[in-house]
TrEMBL record:
Keyword Transcription regulation: no
Chain ranges of the DNA mismatch repair proteins mutS family domain: 256-435
Pfam family, one: MutS_V
Gene Ontology terms for molecular function: ATP binding; ATP-dependent DNA damage sensor activity; mismatched DNA binding
Keyword DNA-binding: yes
Name assigned to this protein: DNA mismatch repair protein MutS domain protein
Entry-linked SMART domains: MUTSac
GO biological process: mismatch repair
Database matches in InterPro entries: DNA_mismatch_repair_MutS_C, DNA_mismatch_repair_MutS_sf, MutS, P-loop_NTPase
Keywords: ATP-binding, DNA-binding, Nucleotide-binding
């Protein structure tokens, strides 16, 4: 079963978007090749749902973090080699001879450029193989060649570059027959291995880039656990886009599956909730996360309700859109899925009395689904007092506000309990809005 991640959640957490500089994708998109960028995009679109697969991918990133190497490949040469490989051949020497001879004649008679393009493909492939040899020597010198991430790549490089039929492939001047032989070897004999080699080079580019981001940002690697462990423990959690973000710790399990979060406007509730959702999503990708230590049981997906839009075409008000979102989550939770759910300011589109009653009822109902974890934030702190009956199913935490000469300041540091902070009017007065009116 694929990991559940709908458009609402992806937008709420700003996970995707190559052209969105604030997206999590853009944060990790430091690759050097288009092939690696396509692979990165595929990973972001398809988080993993298997413990072993997640931990294996995470281990590869950790390896490249601990053993960084330079990426000695030229993107243009890789692209030309890929196009050359895609053109391919039937594997026959006779056909290679006929093809290049025909192209050579056409280049002389009608100035056709296909022969030159073939030579460019050959030269690019040779340059890539030389870069592979350079990287392989670096690995051999450092004694890292037998480490898991490099094994398949190094085997293909050795198979091709040590073949006697290619021993003089790098000589500067080649005849037509030399080119025929090379064309036959590259697009016929070794075509399958070379295409695999390209894929592994793109993977290497991605692993090096992501590991480099993790090292520069001080990210760590989460440990995936079986679903039946039913835990999430995150220490030193922060938003990956904030270099100086304040770190917090969160813990969920079957005994405490709901976090009831209070705090004034601008105290950091939304950022904390988004940070948690992003961490869970990246952890299921096997990617490094913005935390110091994370252990998590694999989940079936994430749902969020942070910026629920109204729908003018369907005639939905903001409140009704919120209701439909809660209904969708309720339907999914009731199917025995293991989900992480984020509700930022439940039912903020309606009056305070209805918001109070609905938030209280929904939060109480969610405590029964102990295989799911919930973060619910609200300004209506009275709901928290009504829920706080001494049980352990709901954890009550808040983000405090410190008043300094009637100016609110925020620590962004979680504290246990329920806050009654309300600084909305103070902020309005400090901005001089009432004086303007």
């Amino acid at each position: 079963m694929s990991f559940i991640a709908d458009k609402q959640m992806l937008d709420d957490l700003s996970l995707l978007g190559k052209f969105n500089p604030g997206s999590v994708f853009s944060l990790f998109n430091q690759v050097k090749t288009r092939g690696a960028e396509k692979l990165l995009d595929a990973m972001f679109l398809h988080p993993l749902s298997d413990v072993e697969a997640i931990n294996n991918r995470s281990a590869v990133f950790r390896y490249f973090n601990q053993h960084p190497v330079s990426f000695p490949f030229d993107e243009k040469q890789l692209e030309r080699m890929e196009s050359y490989m895609d053109e391919g051949g039937d594997g026959s020497y006779i056909m290679a001879l006929w093809e290049l001879s025909r192209k050579k004649v056409a280049s002389v008679l009608v100035k056709d450029d296909t022969y030159d393009l073939t030579l460019t493909g050959i030269e690019s492939s040779i340059s890539v193989l030389k870069a592979c040899e350079k990287l392989l020597k670096q690995l051999e010198q450092e004694g890292r060649d037998n480490d898991q991430p490099w094994v398949k790549w190094s085997e293909i490089v050795r198979t091709i570059t040590t073949d006697d039929r290619l021993k003089d492939f790098s000589k500067p001047a080649r005849s037509l027959m030399d080119n025929v032989r090379l064309h036959h070897m590259l697009t016929g004999v070794f075509r399958s291995q070379l295409k695999t080699l390209l894929e592994l080079i793109y993977e290497t580019d991605l692993y090096l880039a992501v590991a480099g981001v993790a090292k520069a940002k001080g990210f760590s690697y989460a440990q995936a656990l079986p679903k039946d462990r039913n835990i999430l423990e995150a220490k030193g959690l922060r938003h990956p886009g904030l270099d100086k973000g304040v770190a917090n710790s969160l813990s969920f399990n079957a005994g405490t599956n709901v976090l009831f979060l209070t705090g004034a406007n601008m105290a950091g509730k939304s950022t904390l909730m988004k940070s948690t959702g992003i961490l869970i999503y990246l952890a299921h990708m096997g990617f490094p996360v913005a935390a110091t230590e994370v252990k998590f049981s694999i989940l079936d997906g994430i749902y969020s309700s942070v910026n629920v839009p109204d729908d003018l075409n369907k005639g939905y008000s903001h409140f009704y859109a919120e209701v439909l979102r809660v209904k969708k989550v309720a339907e999914e939770v009731a199917t025995d899925k293991s989900l992480f759910v984020i509700f930022d300011e439940l039912f903020k589109g309606t009056n305070v009395k209805d918001a109070y009653d609905a938030t209280l009822a929904v939060t109480e109902a969610f405590t029964d689904f102990t295989n799911c974890f919930f973060i619910i934030s609200t300004h209506i702190f009275e709901v928290g007092h009504a829920l706080n009956n001494g049980g352990s199913q709901i954890a009550f935490e808040f983000l405090p506000t410190i008043m300094n000469n009637n100016v609110p300041q925020y620590t962004y540091q979680l504290q246990k309990g329920i806050t009654t902070d309300r600084q909305g009017m103070i902020i309005i007065e400090n901005e001089g809005i009432l004086d303007m009116l």
